[in-house]
Amino acid sequence: MASPTEILLAVLPLIAIAYLMVIQYWPATRAMPVAWVTAVGVGVVGWQMTPRWIAAATINGFITAASILWIVFGAILLLYTLKQTGAFDAINAGFASVSEDRRVQVVLLVFLLGSFIEAAAGFGTPAAVVGPLLVGLGFPPLAAVVVALTGNLMAITFGAVGTPLIIGLQDVFETTDIATPAGTSVPEWVAQIGVWAATFHVTIGVLLPFIGVAMMTRFFGEERSIKPALEVLPLTLFAWFTFAVPYWLTAYFIGPVFPGLIGSMSGMVFTVGALKAGFFHPDDDWDFAPQETWPTHWVGDIKPGETSPREGTIAADGGVVTERMPLWKAWMPYVLLAALLVLTRVWTPLTDFLTSTLVLAWDDILGTGLDNDLSLLYLPGAAFVFVHLLTIPLQDMKPGEIKDAWVETGEKVMPAVIALLFAVATVQIMIQSGKAAGIDSMLTILSDATANFAGGVYPFFAALVGAFGAFLAGSNTVSDILFGTFQYNVAQNLGVSRTILVGSQAVGGAIGNLIAVHNVVAALAVVGLVGEEGRVIRLELIPLAYYAVATGLLTMLFVFVIFPGVF
């Protein structure tokens, strides 16, 4: 058993992150480099890590971070491409035409469209995209941010085409010496973890669409009640069902890349179809009180109802004529993306080509035995960029629009570069510290101490640990990188299912996104309400508490009662 001094040293990098970001409100771009320096100091003092091992672990982390950044870059580039062409205006108008009821719009735009954007792009983009769409429809900006952050939680674990599980767990586990179920590779085992994460989400997420609507009617409705939300409960359950069934089946039969995409597309098709056929629509449309009665903190620099359609041709009278893009054309880039991702994962000759071409590999990094690589063509970032190039002629992008899409993408991605590089490098130092010294690593010592302290009730808190990581780092992926190995070791020490406990971690990483400072700031910024972070986080604690407690109870039930024999 580790000494108190060893435990204190091992936890110092995490304390540095928590103190700087939570207490001092430092951005991750400043806090993560300090955490890395702290981890280096701890590695030298407590684990006798040599400069060679520190450099190798850091390089290993940078390579993994580059993989994440490549996906982020491509996803955001396609997102801003569609904003420039007016495709998102068309998609939004398509949903708005289905119903003028704000409750229905929350189900369609927040739960379904938001989940689709999360599944395709991830990294905080749904709230940053859906929020302005809701404001354009006439939602109070503060309400738009609150509901936009709440609604896509089920998709986050599989966001950016499975990045949290593939990069956050699979790539990390492949650099460690952990055991997997007999006859199962690390990717196959991570796919099993994804199934358990989907099982948690499907069970607990049954109320998620309803919670989004209830948050709106209770805190932003004229009557300040959840009663109007109860009137659309059948619709929220139907939307959940048409999302959840294909979502879980996809996780089970295909893997962690497509559950969010297929689930959200299925939900959109069936829910919109049912509404247009006359099912589930409330008798009376619900709306907000008149704008002049709204509190001042609900509205910032952007007024509800304002839109920014794509600039059109100049009419004879000198006015601007705007023509809405056909809905099929607006959706086509994401249809192409889904098809391309499926093709590159199921057609073996293409998969083999992509995984062996333009691969930047570094084996035996600095003679330490660490290996890592950056597969530029196989990672989803390449698919996003390729579809961006196809969209240029497909949606007739002008040179100025192409430039603006790239500039906006750079502005969005750059703050994440330093944060991700040093966050992943910090974790790698904590993981590799044991290998460097031939003793237990920092994370192993922390897991032992946590298991000894919490004892048999630890599984209840596993998701909260994941949520804490996402709150600190603003990313489910980084939370999985920070705590995936930690959760594995705790489960092993307790003698409970490692698969289920790591699955709970993957769900917890999604929960923490509700209050992740980065996400909240980004969502408020795009609706002109920067400065209201405290109000938003306080409200988001409500769905967070529900989801975290329910996940904790379900984890305890799974590992001790229903599935105690799972690896």
Salient structural properties:
mainly alpha, membrane, 24 helices, L-lactate permease, 567 residues, transmembrane helix, solute:proton symporter activity, two-stranded antiparallel ribbon
Please tell me about this protein's structure.
This protein has 567 residues and is mainly α. The protein has one domain. The protein is built from 24 helices and four strands. The strands form two sheets. The chain has a two-stranded antiparallel sheet with strand order 1-2. The chain has a two-stranded antiparallel ribbon with strand order 3-4. Strand 1 and strand 2 form a beta hairpin. Helix 15 packs across helix 16 and helix 19 crosses helix 21.
Overall, the morphology is globular
Q: Tell me how many strands there are.
A: 4
How far is the N terminus from the C terminus? 24 Å
Beta-strand content estimate? under 5%
Major sheet details: 2 strands, antiparallel
Number of domains: 1
- Overall mean pLDDT: 87
Number of helical segments with 4 or more residues = 24
Structural class: mainly alpha
**Spatial strand arrangement across the major sheet:** 1-2
Low-confidence spans: pLDDT under 50, at least 5 residues? Answer: 311-321
Radius of gyration: 23 Å
Q: Secondary-structure element order, as H and E?
A: HHHHHHHHHHHHHHEEHHEEHHHHHHHH
Percent helix among the residues?
A: over 70%
Transmembrane segments: 7-26, 32-50, 62-82, 106-135, 142-169, 189-211, 232-254, 260-279, 334-362, 374-392, 413-431, 451-473, 544-566
GO molecular function, one term: solute:proton symporter activity
Membrane topology: Multi-pass membrane protein
Subcellular location: Cell membrane
